[in-house]
């Protein structure tokens, strides 16, 4: 069977992992194009021709030629194309989108930055690092309050919102954030990791190109 999708990204990228995870959980094999960020490949004309913002990830639908950027938009598209994780109703889909937009603003940005600081990719003053961590932990606290007494962010089954948020929390170890301080969030992470076909970043994203 021909591969339907090509994912352009980087194996260390959280947003790339979100998309790869959804494809993997859906049992959908995909081609992978490693984008060399250090060499500035994402700013070159070839990449910009398919990813207008010069960012990763970029998903190519090889069946219809469509190219999409921004991980939340890609997850939303895949929910329609694959018929998975889209919510049980239109209202659930709208709520899932709300969580994804919230994630980008209130969780992913400070969390990923905390990760970069912790692993030495970003150098900042201690006061700045502490403030970024505080904002990330405030986002986790919001999740803790919402997840208390429920399994998933929206409805009774996992949706793109859960995959989107998990794609941030998956890097808690690298960010040196101990999720055990938020038991409902820790339980949520365990539920996602128990889903059939689940894979961690190193299992989902190759370190080199994987052809279609």
TrEMBL record:
<dbReference type="InterPro" id="IPR004045">
    <property type="entry name" value="Glutathione_S-Trfase_N"/>
</dbReference>
<dbReference type="InterPro" id="IPR010987">
    <property type="entry name" value="Glutathione-S-Trfase_C-like"/>
</dbReference>
<dbReference type="Pfam" id="PF13409">
    <property type="entry name" value="GST_N_2"/>
</dbReference>
<dbReference type="GO" id="GO:0016740">
    <property type="term" value="F:transferase activity"/>
</dbReference>
<dbReference type="Pfam" id="PF00043">
    <property type="entry name" value="GST_C"/>
</dbReference>
<feature type="domain" description="GST C-terminal">
    <location>
        <begin position="89"/>
        <end position="212"/>
    </location>
</feature>
<dbReference type="InterPro" id="IPR004046">
    <property type="entry name" value="GST_C"/>
</dbReference>
<dbReference type="InterPro" id="IPR040079">
    <property type="entry name" value="Glutathione_S-Trfase"/>
</dbReference>
<feature type="domain" description="GST N-terminal">
    <location>
        <begin position="3"/>
        <end position="86"/>
    </location>
</feature>
<dbReference type="InterPro" id="IPR036249">
    <property type="entry name" value="Thioredoxin-like_sf"/>
</dbReference>
<protein>
    <submittedName>
        <fullName>Glutathione S-transferase</fullName>
    </submittedName>
</protein>
<dbReference type="InterPro" id="IPR036282">
    <property type="entry name" value="Glutathione-S-Trfase_C_sf"/>
</dbReference>
<keyword id="KW-0808">Transferase</keyword>
